[in-house]
Amino acid sequence: MANENRIPRNAMDDHTNEMARERRHYLQEKTGAELKYTGDYTIDPAVLPGNIENFIGIVQMPVGVAGPVQINGEHANGLFHVPLATTEGTLVASYSRGMRVINECGGVKTTVVEQAMQRAPAFIFNDARESRQFGQWVEENMEHIREVAQSTTTIGKLINIQQWSVAKIRYLRFNYTTGDAAGQNMVGKATLAACEWIKAYYPHGCEYLLSGNMDTDKKHSHLNMLHSRGKRVIAEIVLKKDVMAKIMKVDTALMAKASVLANTGAMMAGAAYNGPHSANGIASLFIATGQDEANVVESHAGLLSHELLPNGDFYLAVTLPSLIVATYGGGTGLPTQRECLEMLGCYGKGKANKFAEIVAATVLAGDISLACAVIAGHWVSSHDKYGRNRP
């Protein structure tokens, strides 16, 4: 009976059209689902090892293009057509509308301020004094620890190790740069090597757990708002009063008042982001370009800042303190995902900061559009006309 309910696998070569077909047949027998469209794909399953197990086919997402948007960044500079994979009607149109405003106002200024990726082991001792003593030893042996950690990677560099004591536990947070990879696996391997060296050479003995959960992998945390995980990226613009009135039918003074209300509401709710909808643009871009979709939970957190200027223009800035993106490795090399990255000029090594700036600019465009739709009273009517609210 156990074999009858085992998903078919081929230990020698499991990523083939034949094995995908066999699994779909198995699922049809077990569930009644035909999986006709899931099994209709064009990519070669041979490119999938390392990306998926028990492959049965492809889930097709509609991809639209927003823009172009003028970005005046240190890495992304020029006009960009932004691919967004989504099933939400009006989303692409809304981002394009925000991008039009950005262009009319001279473009968005983007800056990658800092970057780091973490693994945070926990070391266990008999009491707090032993924990404190261990922390001092780690500081004294930092160069040896860095050498061991970096021996596992040609890209990752150990910046520093933060430390916290709780009861008899010493939490260490290893901070790395990881080049154009998101780097979670890279820093896990490097930190494991470092911890094994620590365990072998610490003179008083210790035990550890490789992740004490202070790295907050695939989770939002306030720690990451202060000490960035991924890239801290800022997108800024001065929205011209006359442009906002002409295109968005919104007065900038009213935008300032609405922003105060929104900030208060977000604070009361304990929201991870005080702007309209950072996750929409990030998730759509992540799906289109082969990012780790679970990283949306960390990446969407941030701060939307505003200032009404004396001449009536409106300064607006998005700060994303934990934007986790990659342009090399993982899912970025899969055929359609690579094409979307190539559309942005962001596939391959040396492009991660450029892509991060594009993501931040996209979030800002979406926030401008949705905020104005809410203020001007077009939010519901636009969904009625173009989106999911249609009967």
TrEMBL record:
Family: Belongs to the HMG-CoA reductase family.
Pfam families hit by this protein: HMG-CoA_red
Organism: Fluctibacter corallii
UniProt entry tagged with the keyword NADP: yes
EC number in record: 1.1.1.34
Top-level taxon: Bacteria
Enzyme class, UniProt record, top EC level: oxidoreductase
Keywords: Membrane, NADP, Oxidoreductase, Transmembrane, Transmembrane helix
Membrane-spanning parts: 355-380
Designated name of the protein: hydroxymethylglutaryl-CoA reductase (NADPH)
Gene3D superfamilies: 3-hydroxy-3-methylglutaryl-coenzyme A Reductase, Chain A, domain 2, Hydroxymethylglutaryl-CoA reductase, class I/II, NAD/NADP-binding domain
